[in-house]
Specification:
This protein has helices at 21-34, 53-58, 62-74, 87-95, 105-110, 120-128, 134-138, 142-161, 175-186, 199-218, and strands at 4-9, 41-44, 47-51, 80-85, 224-228, 238-242, 269-280, 301-304, 309-323, 331-340, 344-351, 354-361. By secondary structure, it is an alpha+beta fold. The protein has a six-stranded antiparallel beta barrel. Strands 2-3-1-4 form a four-stranded antiparallel sheet, with helices on both faces. The chain is elongated. The two termini are 46 Å apart.
Length: 362
C-alpha cells in the first residue's frame, strides 16, 4: 500500500533565484506547515510533503488538515494543497487542490494525459500508438512495456498504474542541507556550545528525524511524550500527548491551588489501575480516615492485592480532598504516604472505606 501524503505546492517558488529570496519564502512556508505537522519533508524548491494518516486523525480528518495547512500558508505565498496515495498522485492532487480518497488514486490518474509523466519522448511515442491517457498506458501488459520501453518506461508504467508512488529523480537531493544553510544564514547564533560529536542541536535534529520516521510507520499516535499538568494524584498530573502536536505554551493549571495534592518528590511508578490494599493497626484493626480527615488509628501493617502483610515504619498524611462538591458526582478521597520495612514507600488512596496503592516510590 502506498503512503498517504499531503503535498503543498508553491507555483511561484518552484525555481531558485540567485539571492535565495524564493527559497527563504519557501522556508517560511515549511515553518507554517510544521506548526501542524512537524515531519514535513522538502521535496524540491516549492514542493513539500508529509505523511497524512496520523495528522489527519489528530486534526479531525483529511479535509480538515488540508484546510488548516492551506490557511496557514496562504498569507506567505500562493499555495496549492492536496492529498492522495503516493507522491506522484499527491503532487497532481495539489495542483488541482483535491483530496483524492484513499484507494482511488489509480482512478484519479487514469484520466490524466501521458505528458503528466514528464517524459516528452515517451509521451510522443504513446500518442502515436493511440495511448493518450495514463489509463491507456496503465492497461498495457507489464511485460510488453518492459520489452518496448525499457526499465525507465516500466517504472513510469507502474506509476501510471498506481503501483508505486514516485518517479525517479523527482526529489531534489540535498534539499534538507540546502534549506538548513539558508535557515542558519537567516537566524542569529544562539551561543550554545557544541559537543565533541556534533553538538546538542545536531543530536536534537537527529532525534526529531528518528521520531518522525517512527511516526510514518506507526502513525502520529505511535510516538507520545509526557506532558505535566495540574492535578492532585500522580496519574492526574501527567498525560500522554502526540509528539510534535501543537499545544498552547504554559499550563495555568500547574500553579493553580489543588487542595489534597501530595507533596514532592514524585513517585517512580504510577499503578493504572490502582492496586487494592488493606491497612490495619498493630492490633489488626482496620485503619480508616474519618469524616474530619483524620486517621482512626496509627497504621501498623499493609497488605497489597491480598499479599503478605508488611510493617509500616513511617507515614505522612492523610491529605483529604473533596472533588466536584457542587455536583452529584462529587468524590471524597484522602491520600497517605507510607514507608514499609525495607524502605519501600507507597502512595495510598482511600475512598468509601477502601484502600488502594496508587503509586510506588523508587
Amino acid at each position: 500500500m502506498m503512503e498517504r501524503l499531503l503535498v503543498v505546492r508553491c507555483p511561484e517558488l518552484l525555481e531558485e533565484d540567485e539571492g535565495g529570496a524564493l527559497l527563504r519564502t519557501f522556508i517560511r512556508v515549511l515553518a507554517a506547515v510544521e506548526v501542524y505537522c512537524p515531519w514535513v519533508q522538502p521535496v524540491r524548491p516549492g514542493i513539500c510533503s508529509l505523511p497524512a494518516r496520523g495528522p489527519a486523525r489528530y486534526f479531525g480528518g483529511e479535509q480538515a488538515l488540508v484546510d488548516l495547512v492551506t490557511e496557514a500558508t496562504a498569507a506567505i505565498a500562493e499555495t496549492q494543497v492536496g492529498m492522495a496515495d503516493g507522491l506522484f498522485g499527491a503532487v497532481l492532487a495539489a495542483r488541482a487542490a483535491l483530496v483524492v480518497p484513499a484507494g482511488t488514486t489509480p482512478a484519479f490518474l487514469a484520466l490524466l494525459p501521458v505528458t503528466t509523466l514528464g517524459d516528452p519522448d515517451l509521451a510522443e511515442l504513446l500518442a502515436r500508438l493511440g495511448l493518450r491517457t495514463l489509463g491507456d498506458f496503465a492497461a498495457l501488459p507489464e511485460r510488453h512495456v518492459l520489452g518496448r520501453f525499457g526499465a525507465d518506461g516500466a517504472l513510469r508504467h507502474r506509476v501510471a498504474r498506481g503501483e508505486t508512488g514516485e518517479l525517479a529523480g523527482f526529489r531534489q537531493s540535498g534539499m534538507d542541507r540546502h534549506i538548513q544553510r539558508h535557515q542558519h544564514g537567516d537566524r542569529p547564533a544562539t551561543g550554545t556550545q557544541g559537543g565533541f560529536w556534533g553538538g546538542t542541536s545536531d543530536r536534537d535534529a537527529r532525534a526529531a528525524r528518528t521520531l518522525a520516521d517512527v511516526q510514518r510507520l506507526l502513525g502520529a499516535d505511535g510516538v507520545l511524550r509526557i506532558r505535566l499538568q495540574g492535578g492532585r494524584s500522580p496519574a492526574e498530573r501527567s498525560r500522554l500527548v502526540t509528539w510534535g502536536a501543537r499545544e498552547t505554551p504554559g499550563d495555568r493549571t500547574l500553579d493553580a491551588p489543588w487542595p489534597g495534592q501530595i507533596p514532592p518528590p514524585a513517585p517512580a511508578i504510577v499503578h493504572t489501575p490502582p492496586l487494592g490494599a488493606e491497612v490495619v493497626d498493630d492490633a489488626g484493626e482496620p485503619v480508616v480516615v474519618s469524616g474530619r480527615g483524620l486517621l482512626t488509628a496509627t497504621p501498623g501493617r499493609l497488605s497489597v492485592a491480598g499479599g503478605p502483610w508488611t510493617a509500616v515504619t513511617a507515614w505522612a498524611g492523610p491529605w483529604p480532598a473533596e472533588e466536584r462538591w457542587w455536583s452529584r458526582a462529587r468524590r471524597r478521597t484522602a491520600r497517605m504516604q507510607v514507608v514499609l520495612a525495607g524502605q519501600d514507600a507507597r502512595l495510598l488512596l482511600t475512598e468509601q472505606g477502601r484502600w488502594w496503592v496508587e503509586a510506588t516510590y523508587g
